[in-house]
User: Fold 3-oxoacyl-[acyl-carrier protein] reductase from Roseateles toxinivorans.
Amino acid sequence: MDLGLQGKWALVCAASKGLGRGCAEALVGEGVNVVITARGAEVLEATALALRALNPAVEVRTVAGDITTPEGRAAALAACPQVDILINNAGGPPPGDFRSWDRDTWLKALDANMLTPIELIKATVDGMAGRGYGRVINITSGAVKAPIDILGLSNGARSGLTGFVAGLARSPKLAAHNVTLNGLLPGAFDTDRLRVTMQGAAAKSGSNFDEAWDRRRMAIPAQRFGTAQEFGAICAFLCSQQAGYLTGQNILLDGGAYPGTF
Assistant:
């Protein structure tokens, strides 16, 4: 299927590895020019080389910096001639007990997982509407749909973003001009972040990593972890011309782990 994306420009946040990289790879494969961001310059440049090799016909630009800061956002936006596609993505805040979180801890989580995406949306959607095409994808978490007790910072910040976008996506000023906003809610994907989390869980329980990894995997109905490539493919479809009637939705990708009907 031709997704109708050739020549578009995308800003993909936290794209040096993991799910962000999977999205960038899928978009580049569809002929989209990309600006990719991440804090680590070395890994970011290596990813850019791989993306250029994947499709030499597209332009790949890098911006190393902290997207949660005004300076980081300004640099990323300045590198993109126009933002047709915005992929908001940031690592989640650490787990813990809410009793130990002070105001600064909460504000850091909100800055990364709610306010930064909103700032980037604010900077880009009017231009999208003026051009008659725009796609915003917010990579959040399956915890938005099924909150996890020790992930209170993520539950709160990401749910705040989800609620905000639910209203904005239904504004005729955007929806009537072919600008859609949707969320992608990952469950357990085989990423560096999951491996670090599982290493911590294994150490805490006194088991070895392989045992903990297999227990986690077998608890998923699909009995496997997701891949960044299949996540990216769904992201690319949501950005497509064919998905123009799909907005304000949250797509859960978790191999069947969520037990509810709705």
Residues 41 and 64 are 5 Å apart (CA to CA).
